[in-house]
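Fold this complex.
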Amino acid sequence: MIAEAATELFLEQGYAATSVADIAARAGVSRSSFFNYFSSKSAILWADLDARIDELETRLSTVTDPSGIDDALRAVGRGFAPGTLALALGNADAMRAEEELFHGGAVRAARIARAVAASLRAAGCDPLVADVAGAADAGAVMASITAWTRAGAGRVGLGPLLTRALDQAAHARAGAPGAAA
Amino acid sequence: MIAEAATELFLEQGYAATSVADIAARAGVSRSSFFNYFSSKSAILWADLDARIDELETRLSTVTDPSGIDDALRAVGRGFAPGTLALALGNADAMRAEEELFHGGAVRAARIARAVAASLRAAGCDPLVADVAGAADAGAVMASITAWTRAGAGRVGLGPLLTRALDQAAHARAGAPGAAA
DNA sequence: GACGGTTATTGGATGCCGTCCAACAATACG
DNA sequence: CGTATTGTTGGACGGCATCCAATAACCGTC
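Structure:
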């Protein structure tokens, strides 16, 4: 309910012009309660993806082989339903939320990149190469999500996009010891 | 002077525990003046790199061939002096600034990735591939900067690290139309 | 050396975010 | 029915970033 109220207001007034107090009022709860359900205003947009990245982090912490990394990354997109984030990406201009989406997306990409790089490093990969490969993988995940939502999430599957992007990113691991192609 | 006062306080009290008012007081200026020189507290750390990314963006907006992109990326690190950012990266634990460095680094990486991807797209590259390659290049730049500073900036050159990282990232462009290897 | 215009600096007020806590309602349970 | 756990609320707080009007410093000109 809070998320619904928020997206309504974002569409009406724009993201930046909508305060947490506005959202709470529209949702019929107090400002305090808002922060019981979302840790911040931007969390409304990113909560779903954040949960999946949490899972990715735990999964990658116990996985070392490259194919396991790819599986874990693909799992991020498996069953990813068009939610608040997709709505925001699709209506970024109406919400005037480009800045927030850019910032938030940057942080999420960095989280993915860090997790992948740590996993590769644990597998004996050169640290610098691990960082580059992690960034490429993270870019692949984020790029396919934005492409998916901007193309009208649901009309096309996220899976194929993700596969193509991750295959491309896998080239960045070329010649990496501990991360054979 | 403001930056010096800030780094002192960051080392003494930590990044989060240091308020803009503290910095202004130590530097002997008013809080208003602080914001005349830095757009935010975190800008103290990132101002130098931001200026270079600004240059990168303008440079890439007039460049389409892949080798030009590589040159522009290498120029980001050319003559990059150990400044506030290097000091923060080197003393991240003492400053308790890991979070800020992570966030700030994520945003800067995303800026670089966006610029590179736009350039590749303009050269006819597939959008998804462009995003992946841009993320890889951005990861290469950021990874080499952090590796450089953590290894004690100055004792080793940034150039070689950057070259190695960008070479690795170049693999992510493999088979990309409009961006031949 | 006085003066007018430009630029730098300052204080203050404002809105909002995110955190904390103590009080209170509501619900489940023995 | 009493109690314990959980959920909700209001309020206060410190901090960030923005704005603006007032003031101070500077600089070339006369």
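The first helix of chain A runs from residue 2 to 13.
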